[in-house]
Each structure stands twice: as C-alpha cells, then as structure tokens.
C-alpha cells in the first residue's frame, strides 16, 4: 500500500497593500473682468480650486469703477475684496494667497495675481492691444507652464469663450449664479391633481366652511410634496381650484379660491379670463401675501391684473397709500439719449405699458362721459408714482404697492436691493418674461426673477404663478407661437 502523500502546508496570502488613488489636481481658473463685475463674490465661489487674476483684468476693473451704475459698484466691490485678500497675507503674493481666512472657509484654494510680464505669441489675427486677447495670452502661458493641471478661462462673454476654444484652451461660463440649468424645471406655482388624489390622500379628511371658503385638512403619500401657497386644480365632473394654506409635516390644509372669473367679484371692472389669471388675482388681492411673482409671455395679462388689483386696494379699500412702479431701463433698440424733465418725466417713455393698461382700466369705470373719465384718470395718476431703479438704494417704502416691471432684466443682486426696500405694510409684485431678456450676461437661468421665484417658493407670505395663455389678441398669440 503506497504511503499517503503529505499535503503541502497552507501558506497565508501576503497582505494586499491598498492602492493609492491618484489625487485629482486642483484646477486653476483664470477670471475675466466681466465675471468680477457680474458677481464680486465670485472670488470665493471656486471652493478648493485656485484662481488667477491677470493684470489686464485689474486694468479693466480700474477703468469701470467710476459712476453710480451697478457695474461700477461691482467693480469697486471686487477691488475692495481683492485688497482685503492681499492684506490678509503677510508673505509675498508670488506663491499665491490662501483664501481660507478671508472667505471664512467658503474657499480653500489660493488667489494668484499676475506678478510678471508675459510674452506669448498670439496668432496674427488677434491684435495684442485688445484687453481680451491679452487675457487669452495669459491663459496660453499658464497652460504651457502647468501641463499637468487643468487651466480654465471663466468668462461671461460668449465670443471670448469661442476664441479661447479656437486656440485650444479650456473655457467655461460662470455658473455659480445660475439657479436652474433648465428653466422648464422652474416652479410654476400650480399643480394638477391626479384622478385618484382624494382616494389616496383623503383618509381621515376633515372639512369645514368659513367666510364663503371650504377648507380640507388631509394627509397622505402625496401631501409632503405640496408647497404653501401652491395652487391645485382638478378638472372633471366636480372641478376643484384650491391652494395650500398650511403645511405641517404630512398634514396640509387646502382652501378653495375666490372666483374672480365671475362678474360679482370683478377687480376694477376686470375679471379673470382663465385659470391662471384667477390664481394670480387671488395672490394679488390677498393681504397676507407680501411678495408676488408673475411670469408669462407677452399678452398674458400680467400688468393689467396687477394694476387693477393695486388700484382697487389703493382707491377703494385703502389698504395701501399709493402705487409705486419701476422697471429696468434697458432699450430693445437704440437708446434715445438724455431726456429732459423730472425723474417721472424721464421715466415716461419706458412706461408705455402703464399708459396702455390705464386706458383699458379707465374704460371700465362706468358711464361718466369724457369729463368723468378725465377726472378718474387724474385721480389714478395722482396715486401712481413712477420711480427709477437708479435711486432706490437706501429707500424704505411703507404701506405701498410696489410693482417691478420687466424684472427678468435684473441681476439677483439688484433684485435683492429692490425687495429689501419694502417696509411694514408694503406689497411687492415682480412681473416679467424670462424669454425676453435684454441685458447682456444674463440668461434665463441666472436672471434675478428666476432667482426670486426659486428662493421664495414655499414661504407662507409669497406666491408665484406662471401665466400660460395669452389673452391680448389672436394676432399676438399667433405671433408668440410662430415668430
């Protein structure tokens, strides 16, 4: 019998050394002047990455610092912030200035300032005398000097980004101020209820009536997604239009709406022609709502509804003392130059929309003949003040109805400046169409109006409606669709 063969002794596998992951190199962002003039705090918005400011950017900031415009204020603010950062570093600026301390831990990268003359041969088609091309030369130099590190130009100027990419350089827009990438995701203020909504969420529902409104308290799987002051509607045999008045965890209280489509509830002779206009009038006429945003294309009735609601509450119910109307003075075509007269007279050419809507509203005030209409117009005009945005800083409006027209042309910073003018008893209404932005460097995603809609949603004293249907004329509706 052959001897049993010995099994080889089991050997322990050698311990595996953990593989070190390659550390991703932090990026170096080169800032164009328009980024700092758009948002001076952009110096602190790049987290762990480093930022580089070319000498030409400082020159252009210096050239734009004079004046009282928003751009000039931002240029001065950016210069002050850079001075604060440089002063915080006792060492030289050649090795970069840490941003951790001056930014209060918002950014952990470094700020580099151009400290040497850079000579890079640009293509003959790009004249070096131009500031943009000198900044591109700096980006080319840094890309050659740091081949192992991403060097990216950040600019709000589309042509500057195209030129950079044509030279083989990385370039991108400044995204930090964008509220939404896709404006289709913007909060509309309305929600259609599913057919089975009441079956799914109506268990243990309470219902009661008060002051002509019906209230429903319910909780279920769909209620946590609802926002305060969001409008709900359901078509069918028993149509419903209501809005969310309270929310606590999964429990919500819905309140049925006042029907402003009925002639008995008309507002200065105006009735709602569609569902969204009815929602808008419920917001505009409610004293508990301090801030209203109305979005919609041309002819949806934004200005008419707001003026009708403001005149009713100033002249009839005396809830507010007067109407203040303002708008951004950005021309669609060529500017018309300096204008004579007072602040109101200078603003008059921009307020054609106000005059057009007053003509409509003045025709609904009853049979008073020409004398009656003239007297009514004088009374209305005495209660409407037209103000310029340029003189808003430092003011406080008490017990006023403040209308901000064409608000899509405001930056988020300008929007904050305007809304914070509101004192006790003041209602602020922002109107606009984010498809018609006339300001350079603003997009649908970075407009102050988009910013306000997104930040205020769900606050108990604010409301928003996106008006869908044009009611101006069949010609205007067709033009909005096909042109």
Short description:
The chain has 483 residues and is α/β, with parallel strands linked by helices. Helix content is 30%, strand content 18%.
Please tell me about this protein's structure.
With 483 residues, the chain is α/β, with parallel strands linked by helices. It contains 14 helices and 18 strands. The chain has helices at 33-38, 55-63, 70-87, 131-145, 158-166, 197-201, 275-284, 302-316, 343-347, 352-362, 369-383, 412-419, 448-456, 474-482; strands spanning 28-31, 50-53, 97-98, 110-113, 151-154, 170-172, 190-192, 206-210, 213-219, 231-234, 240-248, 251-256, 291-296, 322-327, 384-386, 400-405, 427-432, 462-467. The strands form three sheets. The protein has a six-stranded mixed sheet. β16, α12 and β17 (427-432) form a beta-alpha-beta unit. It is globular and about 75 Å long. Mean pLDDT is 83; it is low at 1-8.
- Identify the overall geometry: globular
Q: Low-confidence segments, ≥5 residues, pLDDT <50?
A: 1-8
Q: Report the sheet with the most strands, covering strand number, pairing sense and barrel closure.
A: 6 strands, mixed
Rg is 30 Å
Distance between the termini: 100 Å
How are the secondary structure elements laid out?
Blueprint: E1 28-31, H1 33-38, E2 50-53, H2 55-63, H3 70-87, E3 97-98, E4 110-113, H4 131-145, E5 151-154, H5 158-166, E6 170-172, E7 190-192, H6 197-201, E8 206-210, E9 213-219, E10 231-234, E11 240-248, E12 251-256, H7 275-284, E13 291-296, H8 302-316, E14 322-327, H9 343-347, H10 352-362, H11 369-383, E15 384-386, E16 400-405, H12 412-419, E17 427-432, H13 448-456, E18 462-467, H14 474-482
Parallel strand pairs: 1-2, 1-5, 2-4, 5-6, 7-10, 13-17, 13-18, 14-15, 14-16, 16-17
Antiparallel strand pairs: 3-4, 8-9, 9-12, 10-11, 11-12
Helix pairs in contact: 2-4, 7-8, 8-10, 12-13
